[in-house]
Structures are given as structure tokens and as C-alpha cells.
Amino acid sequence: MTPPPQDRPGGAIGQPMNRVDGPAKVTGRATYAAEHPLPNLAHAVLVTSAIPHGRVRRIDTTAALAVPGVLTVLTHQSPGVTLRPVEAPYPKGPAGSGLLPLQSDEILQRGQVVAVVVADTLEQAEHAATLIEPEYEAAPFIGTLAESLTSDREDLRAPVEQADYTRGEPEQAYRAAEVQLDLTYTTPQEQHNPLELHGTLAVWESTTRLTVYEPSQWILAPQHTLAHHFGLDPEAVRVVSPYIGGGFGSKAATWAHLPLAALAARVVQRPVKLARSRAQEFAGVGYRPATKQRYQVGATQDGRVTSVLLHADSQAGMHNDFPEQVVNITRMLYDVPHMRTAQRLARTHAGEGIMMRAPGEASGSFALESAMDELAYAVGLDPLEVRLRNYAETEPESGLPFSSKLLRECYAQAAQRFGWARRTPTPGSMRDGDTLIGWGMASVTYPVYASAATARARLFADGRAEIEAGSQDIGTGTYSILTQIAADGLGVAPAQVRVFLGDTRYPKNAYSGGSRTAASVGDAVMAASLAVRQDLALLAVHDPASPLHGLTPEALEMRAGHLYAWADPARGEALSVILERAGRDHLEAYREVLPVGGERKNLQEMMSAKNASVPADAGGYARHSFGAIFVEVRVDPDFMTPRVSRMVGVYDVGRVLNHKTARSQLIGGMIWGVSMALHEQTDVDPTTGLVLNDNLAEYHVPVNADIGEVDVTLLDVPDPHASHLGVRGAGELGTVSTAAAVANAVYHATGKRIRDLPVSIDKLLSPEDR
């Protein structure tokens, strides 16, 4: 049977359907990883290092072991704690860094685990943990990006080879430019802080079979990591993760608590729950690396960029090479004939950096879009006009055509909805009474990542349907959109579909990151659903007793549990009748789907927990989502307190599967960008190297009162070169460039250019730009 037209009236795809998992979440019926009720459950608590670098000279566990209810205390000296090092699944966490927990007395990062206390109750374990006071031999440490860059230690620097890029003659073009700008921007270390803490519930079903309940953005990663650590067959490790309370990238890797929970469960021979505290979320589970970006921009007096020289530094741990690839967005967004980009890692004892919502683009767009704004003021042009004059019709780096690019339409609609034409260009010229008003804007883009995917569909005689996919819903609405896709593919109502996710027993899939899940897993669900419907049609047309006998499957339609002829809707019969005559109670199909431009190896890589991503330029097209963000800020002229009063975003994300969940994702991303602009930074004590604001009272994120009006428009134009359903991701796009638009609006309001995030009162009160 041919795929159903996606614009058919009454179809589920595209409808603003409520989240199917919403009732379970608001009533408490949704069971998160740490909430699974297991009999005879023991509790584990981590003891983390009080220094970021050095060694454990001595660790006395006697007092802790004497606490009633304590079952064991694990340290690097304990027998049976050896973990086999592995080449980590992608994305790399500690399993791929060489820094496995409790394997030696060496301390190489803040928050490193030095002991695990296991007890009958959480309270007993927490109390016993306070009685462990290791003696340390401290060593000099590098706590921040700035300290790393000012150090004379060359071993702290490492090139990011994929960032090195040159086109044209950038130095010569810069020297010859009529307008020359030399600008440096910085972004701070930021923490993911999902509402659900990281943690693991581990139970050994036998000496060779392990089950873990782990909030994971990629359930194959803990499965393969634990199999390597303990010498098990990967299929003997089951990972269960049906609901995830946010991850934002931090739950795509495997961290120390995962193998330690399994170790503890093996030692005490009981199920063990190990959950991090909120303070422990600030070290040991990743962060967005701090960056420093120097832009040298050459341009003509009429605002055409002729040359860009970009050198970036990004923070990293001592034992991982995760690059916050800030240079990529600069290489593709504008039509710049001469360009050179370079980036290097600057190592610190902060631990492993990891992806965080819109990795690379979030930090890179702040610098790029701030620089474009500065250029507009330097040449006396409207910031939107400067972007239009440098519009790239084809992808500048590869020369490929874009699979779809509606950025001009985004600019036009967003500007109209915002009222940009009423802007007066002079900084400080717009007021509401005494309050300073500032308007800023920025271009938005994010690459399309796609992966191989698999799914299984079942259709029962009573009209019920089931979908199984070993993917994850990290709070984005995956349960809902897969329900809608399956409903249209099978020809049943969404209420008849039940989706099962988050279990390694289900068909394997890639990680939920890079905004890939909707397109990748959605394609597989549609393929499996269509295969089931095709099998049903074949049963009918080949059955002489069926009124549909002799027709072709393509001539049939399935709706509301009935199969009928397109040309004669009265000619048909119920699904249950067809299956009863065939002696079947259900039909089932499993499908493996390669992304557009993908190869068979992508599926094989995914099955073995390797990186299964297809490049954004696969299939002969450059594939990106686009958008435009316009922001209004209000600044108190006496106290210089900036507040975002209004945001308008228009986004081109391909076909929209669910307008409600997609809009929710973009609103969340825009708010995240406001947080990046005005609130977030990790403060490190220069004396101890530890995080000072390791709590949600002092690590600031926006609350409802910080966010004004948010207006989001989705263009909803399918992109057939991005995925088989024409879908592109939306989850990370909203974060990109929002911080720049806010900072640009602050400049328009105050005349103060803040190049170091976050924009804060002290910087606005400073006599100099910062």
C-alpha cells in the first residue's frame, strides 16, 4: 500500500494532540528510573573528592561500617571493584575517557568518586557517608578555561582537527577590508541540571544477567558499557528507561554512578539504588564547556562580509576530548568568500565536558550573531538588512544546495509579527516612560542529524495497535508523535495505539540527541506500520470470501478498523473479519530504515552502539533547520536590570508532526537561550577548584516571572531530503542565537555591548564594554 497523504483531512500527523503520557505524569503513574519498586532494595550514596587534583593518601571506613544498617563501603582498595576499560559507545563519557571510578588513588577531576556507601536505608547510607573523611595529597589544579589559557603548560592544549578550515585568502582579504572588526566573546561553563537527578537502580538476575533502571538518552550505551565492564554478553544486560525527567545531553553518556551501582549490587547481592544529590549534579555528569572566541571580521562599507578569521578555545577535561564545536555555524550560515577557522581544547580539572542543548551552535551563535550586530552598527545599517546582504543561497563550505531553506520567509514573518519596522536605530532612543527599550534579532540554524532506526508494529483484531522501539522519550513528546505516525500508517485512531519505548528488549535505535529522534524513529515506525497495513490488504485481496477480493492493495484504505475500496467506500469489511478468516489474531511487522543518504553501515554501527549519525550533507544536499528570533528587553536605567519582555520566533523545521509539542520544544529552547543570556554560569572557587553555586538557589535559571510574551510560528513545509517523512528536528533550534538576540537588544537599549555571558548588572554598570 502507498503511504497515506499527510495532508488528508482527519489524519493524526500535524494535529496539536495532547501528550499521550501527560495523564500518567501528572497523576504520578509514570515510573521514573529511581522509582521502580524492587524487593529487598538497598541504597547507595557517593562520597566525592574534596580536591580536584591529587591523590587519596588514606581513607578510613571503620566509622562508616559501624553504622547500623551499613552493608559495605567500596573504595579503590576494596576487592572486586576492578572494571574492564572499554572503548566507549558514542557519545563518550567516563567509559571512554580512561577515568573509571575507584580504579586507583589518583584524583583527576572535581567531584571524582572516592567511596560508595551501601546500607539498608537511604538515611543510614547518607549518615555513614558523612563519617568518611579521606586524607588527600593535593596537587596543583586548573579550575577554569581562563586558568588553562593563561598557564604555560603546553600539554593543556590540544587542537580540534575538524575545526581547522580555510577558504579563499582570509588574512589578505581582512587586511584589505574597508571595515575591520576584532572582537572577542566568552561563554561560561554551564550545567545541565535536569529535574530528575542522575541515578541507577541495579539488580543482578543471576551471575551473568544484569538489569538496570537508568534515565538514559541512549539505552544502548549503558547496555554495552556495562557488558564491557563486567565481561557480559550485551544481550544479558537489560536497560529500562521508560520515562526521563530531562537530560539535555547529560544523559546521553554513561557516568560513574552506573557501574558503581552494578558493583554495589553484586557485592551485597541485593538490588541497589544509587541516586546523585543535586550538588553532585555539578561535577561528574558533564557540563557545557566554557568558550573564548575571537572574531576578526572584514567587510565593505555597504555591509558585505568579505573575510572572517575565527579562533576559538573551548574547555575540556584532562581525559576527554569533547569539543564544543563553535566554529561550524560560522562556516555555513553566511556567504563569506574568505574564511579561516581554528579551535583548540584547553584542559582543566573540571571533568568531562559533554553535549548540552544545541552543543556548539548555542555558544557559537552568541559570538557570530553578536558580531553581525556589531557590524551592522559599524556600517550604519539595519541588523536584518546586513543579514540579508550576506544571505547564502547554497551551503558555503560544501557548495551543495540546501535541502530546503526558508530563512528569508522566517525573517519576513518574524519581523512583521514583532513590528521591527518601528525600531529606531540609535541605542537608548526607545523608552516606555523611564524604562529603556531595546530590540535585537538574530539568525537561527541547526544541522539535521539522522540515524538508522528500527521499529515493530502490531495490529490486533479488535483494532488495537502496539509500537515497540528501543528509543527514548526525554520529555520532548516522542510517545505522542510516534502515536500519531502509527495511527496514520496503520489507519487507526490515535487512541487505539500504544507506544512502548525505553527498553533494550525492543528494536534498537540511536540516541536521543541532535534533534534526530522524531525524524529517524518516526521513519521506522511509519515503515513498520505501512508493512502491517500492506499485509492486511494482501490477506483481503487474495481471499475469495472478501468483498475486496481481486483489488490491488493500492486501491484500499484503512480507517477506524475497516478496510475499504477508495473508489467505493461501501465495499469493505472489518479488520476483525479479515483476520478471523485468516486464522490470525494479529499482524506484526519489523522494519529497519536507513536515513535519507544513509548506508547499511549506519545500521550496523547503531546495533553495536557506535555513532550511527549520517552527516548533514549526506544525499547531495546540505540539511539544516532555520529560523529568526526577535527579542525585546526592558532595562531599568537606575539599576540596569535587564528583563526580556517579548520574543518572536519563526522557524523552518520541515513537516511538523505535532504543532503543540513542536511549539513547546521551541518555547523551551527560547527560554533556555534567555537563561544562557542573563542567568547561567558555573562559579568555581579559585582556592579549592570546587563549584561554589552547586544548588538551584545560586545557580540561576529563569522562573515564570523572568519570561514575558513568547510568540512562536512554524512554517510547516516538508523537506523530503531530510527524512522520509519530510521531518527535521526542533528540540535544539530554539536555543540557538537567542542569547545573541538578547545581548543585541540590551545593546540597543543601553549602548553597552556585553561580550562575556551572562549579561549581568555589574557588567552593565561598568564604564567599559565587557
TrEMBL record:
InterPro entries the UniProt entry points to: Ald_Oxase/Xan_DH_a/b (IPR000674), Ald_Oxase/Xan_DH_a/b_sf (IPR036856), Ald_Oxase/xanthine_DH-like (IPR016208), AldOxase/xan_DH_MoCoBD1 (IPR008274), AldOxase/xan_DH_MoCoBD2 (IPR046867), AldOxase/xan_DH_Mopterin-bd_sf (IPR037165)
A Pfam family per the record: Ald_Xan_dh_C
Keywords on record: Molybdenum, Oxidoreductase, Plasmid
Chain positions covered by the region annotation Disordered: 1-21
Keyword Transmembrane helix appears in the UniProt entry: no
One function term, GO molecular function aspect: oxidoreductase activity
Residue ranges constituting the Aldehyde oxidase/xanthine dehydrogenase a/b hammerhead domain according to the UniProt record: 27-140
Keyword Oxidoreductase: yes
Name of this protein: Xanthine dehydrogenase family protein molybdopterin-binding subunit
Organism: Deinococcus sonorensis KR-87
